[in-house]
Amino acid sequence: MAFRGLAPFGALGRALSHRDARIFFGASLTSWTGLWVHQIAVAWLAWEMTKSAVWVGMVAFCDLAPAVIFSPIAGAVADRMDRVKLTMASQAVIALEAAAIGALLLTGHLSIGLLLALEMCKGTAASFSQPARQSLMPGLVPRADLPAAVACNSLCYNVARFVGPAIAGPLIATAGVVPAVFLNSLAYLAATLTMPSLRVDAAQRRGAPSGVSVWADTIAGFRYAGRHPGIGPLLAFAAIASVLMRGVQEILPPFVERLFARGADGLAMLTACIGIGALFSGLWVASRGKLEGAVGLSVGAVACQAIFTIGFVSTGFFPFALLCAALMGAAGSVHGISTQTLVQNAADPSMRGRVLSLWGMIVRACPASGALALGAAGEIFGLRWPTIAAMLVALLVFAWGWSRKPVMVAELEGRG
Asked: Which residues cross the membrane (predicted)?
């Protein structure tokens, strides 16, 4: 039974008309809301403990950087085992990590070094969760509804990006960091417990062992993506753009205090505005429900995000910064949804987990690298000018991506 309230968004309504899709996306929304509360909490905690943009960048780096090592391996693992069980195990680890941070804070035993170690554990678990979860999506909806399902997945993430900060700001300001991280633990526990209720076709739920080692499968995934005339250039473009642009969003606390003289409330407002922009642009992309034009959206959104980020760091007027943050979120959402839809559609089913693990590595490890570099540069040169320089380089990357657009369109949009 389709959702009548989603009639204006026909493709999105079709994706959500399937029972398993509703369970899956409901769990995603719950866990990601907890995740955003957690990320704001630990970033603010690191800033309060050190007053250093470098340490805040290190916290983001330790959460996201394990994807460099583990995401490709996790993709190979997801292509050869039960993806539901792999998702459950990795999400349970994330729930335990958040509970450990809360317990250590309550007892006064949490140091910045221990926080970094725990965030690295969470990042490792997330590296295994991402390809396993994403590989399940073709088993939740018919192939015709897959673009809308991918858009809905990203939409859940961006709704959480709005709801999470709306919860985190007041919660941290009134009760501190401990309730925020415990909330994330409960959210991931709830999401984990919903997984056994999914009725996913066995062919989509369980990967097929290839007869070679996990390492050989991992290398095969890199070779497949690198040799694909559409997937290879698209992922390379996304990776470079992510390193240059996403670092700003990963280390927002120093920007909040140094550029706008705001506290936790300002951090929550900025993050919520990013989420609002992403939410509305995500709804628009989801309503398209088609591949045609997706390459142009993926590439063009990078130029838009670079321009809006320059506006964000060039002002000291907080209301204008909020507007730029919303536009940054909108552009980032269009890029992410379009890229993931194209990759999901074009990848061979036997390689889906590995290709999606590379996408997971890009969206996790590349922002971590950018955050660490930006945090270090910010301590020496200030935050404004290194950010502007990175955005100007991103515009050059956009020009390269646009020059490859015809080939990517032929390879990615022409495959049904």
From this structure: 23-47, 53-77, 98-118, 167-189, 231-248, 268-286, 293-314, 320-343, 355-377, 383-402
Q: Name the token pair of 403.
A: 């020059």
Asked whether residue 3 is assigned to any structural domain, the reply reads: no
CB 141 within 8 A of CB 21: yes
> For the domain that residue 380 is a member of, what is the CATH number?
1.20.1250.20
Burial class, 334, CB count within 10 angstroms (exposed 0-12 / middle 13-18 / buried 19+) = buried
> What's the confidence (pLDDT) of residue 354?
80
Cα–Cα distance, 238 to 359 (Å, whole number): 9
> Residue 74 domain-assigned?
yes
Total number of domains in the chain: 1
Q: For residue 372, give its domain range.
A: 10-197+212-413
On the CB side of 113, CA atoms within 13 Å amount to 1
For the whole prediction, is pTM greater than 0.70? yes
pLDDT of residue 174: 83
CA dist 144 and 299 (Å) reads 24
Q: What's the pLDDT tens digit per position in 160-192? A: 776 787 788 788 878 889 999 999 999 999 999
| Cα of 395 vs its chain's centroid, Å | 22
- Residues 358 and 155: their CA atoms lie apart, in Å, by 20
Q: Is the dihedral of CA 112, 116, 117, 121 positive or negative?
A: positive
DSSP secondary structure letters along 11-43: HHHHHHTSHHHHHHHHHHHHHHHHHHHHHHHHH
201: part of which helix (H) or strand (E)?
none
> What are the φ/ψ torsions at residue 82 (nearest 5 degrees)?
-70, 115
Per-residue pLDDT at 289: 67
334-337: Cβ within 8 A, 24+ apart? 334/281, 334/282, 334/284, 334/285, 334/297, 334/298, 334/301, 334/304, 335/238, 335/241, 335/297, 335/298, 335/301, 335/302, 335/305, 336/154, 336/363, 337/150, 337/151, 337/154, 337/155, 337/282, 337/285, 337/286
* pLDDT the model gives residue 358: 84
Which parts of the chain have pLDDT scores under 50?
1-9, 416
- Residue 213, token pair as written in the block: 């080692």
* 8 Å CB contact between 9 and 286: yes
Q: Decide if 175 is inside a domain.
A: yes
Tokens of 168: 């985190």
The per-residue DSSP string of 106-119 comes to HHT---HHHHHHHH
